[in-house]
Amino acid sequence: MAFSTRLSTKLSLFAAFVLCLYITVVQAEGISTIRAQATITSNGQLSINSRFNLQLPDQLKQALNQGVPLNFDLNYQLNAPTLASYRNRINNLIGGDNLIQFKLTYHPLTGRYRVSMGPTFSTEYNSLDTALKAIGAVANWRVLNKGALSGATTKEVRADVRLSLSISQLPKPFQINALTSHSWQLDSGWHHLIINAE
């Protein structure tokens, strides 16, 4: 009886160890939030600062090194105050200014990685790790129309930010992989912004 109890305890500890190891491996690949802050500006806008820790699974690294560009979307959403949030959702349906698009490419001739932010700004990096740090990193991203948060306090404003791999912009064969493989579905999930006053 004592032997079976000790064996059961050892098996439970081993199972817990394996589970912890699995969770560590799963968390090693994906997107986690390092910084998510925003400031209510004097003209009633929101100024967002964000940074993410992005780890690509081996399949995505191989695809990138074979010439497949990876696109990421940095989105924000305003949840409160209610009226400003409602107006913002309507404006985003019409104008779609609630996101910044990042594009990661690899150039085999130079051996360098390029990160493009929007249609005009791009920077090259010598290593993939350095390039990944640039994706989702923004400072003073002014969102909302001027005056949208005039008179609102930091306690009244609630907003989230999110970084995700844009599956719809992958080449068609890779979109199928992305739908069937968990490792291709990179998403930080919505993360609450810490709101400060200017």
If you had to describe this structure to a student in words, what would you say it looks like?
The chain has 198 residues and is of the alpha+beta class. The chain has one domain. It has five helices and ten strands. The protein has a six-stranded antiparallel beta sheet with strand order 6-5-4-3-8-9, with helices on both faces. It is elongated, with a radius of gyration of 21 Å. The relative contact order is 0.22. The model is unreliable at 3-28 (pLDDT under 50).
Element string (H = helix, E = strand): HEEHEHEEEHEEHEE
The count of domains is 1
DSSP helix count? Answer: 5
The side-by-side strand order for the widest beta sheet comes to: 6-5-4-3-8-9
How many β-strands, per DSSP?
A: 10
The proportion of strand residues reads 35-45%
General shape? elongated
> Which structural class fits the helix and strand makeup?
alpha+beta
Low-confidence stretches: 3-28
Largest sheet: 6 strands, antiparallel
From the alpha-carbon coordinates, what is the Rg to the nearest angstrom? 21 Å
Distance between the termini: 68 Å
* Mean pLDDT value: 80
In which range does the helix fraction lie? 25-40%
